[in-house]
């Protein structure tokens, strides 16, 4: 059984490999610039360069990751660092210098929120401390991103607003619901959250952070611009495609198991909530299935995906 589970896992990963997913989704027109960020960025960029040949690019990866021989900025993840600041500033300057006729291909995957970090109105140290507190608080990724977007010069569609170029974005979705505005905190996509909602998140989890609160309150009063909203005309210059999703990975695993002669059921690709509650749900489901054959009859494989939150206490890592 262990060998079957490992084989299923490996097959699903192979079918959902960033190189393969990106290569088949690339637009025909050769871009003038490629921006790649996230945990899948190196393979996504390699696919693009294999297709288009030499194109100017900027690649940002988590520290310690293999760059596949490509030139890269290695930045902090899940907490931003000085290299995150450098990477975001470089990308912002590249985009500002482009003409309306320029075509930019952006390759975005999970982790981009930390890897491109250019705080708005607060220090990097304050942003890092707040991010760490949010990650340990049990806040959802949407709540965390609502705060991060409103304390950033690049998130929440601000990179799109900073350039006149046309952008085509390929995304690897790592969040339940596959919302492009949530993946990497949506540097090119509209954001429905507000300064008021960001403040509410801090209140909900009892986070003081006076420096961040000051910026959010000043944004609420109009001193800082809001994030990109769905009606903004800048969106006419944006096209995008989600090339890989959690559901694709689950379907790949399901298909492999079925080819081996097993029944496999996908419960959901959108599980969320506290990790212990999710564990209890899955355990109770298996107990009921084994005892009564409900809601499914065994033997079968149960597949599920999503993103759990943890509330860290003491010195735990989460």
Automatic annotation (TrEMBL):
InterPro entries reported in the protein's UniProt record: GK-like_C_sf (IPR037035), GK_N_sf (IPR038614), MOFRL_assoc_dom (IPR025286), MOFRL_protein (IPR039760)
Keyword set, alphabetical order: Kinase, Transferase
SUPFAM superfamilies given in the database record: GckA/TtuD-like
Domain MOFRL-associated: from-to ranges: 5-215
Gene Ontology MF terms: glycerate kinase activity
Gene3D superfamilies given in the database record: Glycerate kinase, MOFRL-like N-terminal domain, MOFRL domain
UniProt feature coiled coil, ranges: none
Keyword Lipoprotein: no
Gene Ontology cellular component annotations, sorted alphabetically: cytoplasm
UniProt name for this protein: Glycerate kinase
């Amino acid at each position: 059984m262990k060998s079957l589970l490992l084989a299923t896992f490996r097959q699903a990963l192979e079918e959902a490999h960033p190189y393969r997913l990106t290569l088949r989704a690339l637009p025909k027109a050769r871009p003038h610039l490629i921006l790649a960020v996230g945990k899948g960025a190196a393979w996504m960029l390699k696919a693009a360069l294999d297709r288009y040949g030499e194109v100017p690019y900027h690649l940002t990866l988590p520290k310690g990751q293999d760059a596949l021989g490509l030139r890269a900025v290695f930045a902090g993840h899940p907490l931003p660092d000085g290299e995150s600041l450098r990477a975001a500033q470089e990308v912002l300057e590249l985009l500002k210098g482009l003409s309306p006729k320029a075509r930019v291909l952006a390759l975005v995957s999970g982790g981009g929120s930390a890897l491109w970090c250019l705080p708005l109105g607060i220090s990097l140290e304050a942003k890092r401390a707040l991010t760490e507190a949010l990650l340990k608080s049990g806040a959802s990724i949407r709540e965390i991103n609502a705060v991060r977007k409103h304390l950033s010069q690049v998130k929440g569609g601000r990179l799109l607003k900073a350039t006149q170029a046309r952008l085509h974005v390929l995304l690897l979705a790592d969040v339940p619901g596959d919302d492009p505005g949530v993946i990497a905190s949506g540097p090119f996509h509209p954001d429905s959250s507000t300064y008021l909602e960001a403040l509410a998140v801090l209140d909900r989890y009892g986070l003081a952070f006076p420096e961040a609160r000051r910026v959010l309150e000043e944004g609420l009063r109009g001193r800082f611009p809001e994030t990109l909203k769905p009606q903004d005309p800048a969106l006419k210059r944006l096209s995008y495609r989600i090339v890989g999703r959690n559901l694709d990975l689950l379907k790949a695993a399901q298909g492999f198991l079925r080819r081996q002669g097993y029944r496999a059921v996908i419960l959901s690709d959108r599980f969320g909530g506290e990790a212990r509650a999710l564990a209890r749900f899955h355990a109770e489901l298996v107990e009921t299935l084994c005892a009564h054959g409900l809601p499914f009859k065994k033997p079968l494989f149960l597949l599920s995906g999503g993103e759990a939150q943890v509330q860290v206490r003491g010195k735990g890592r989460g």
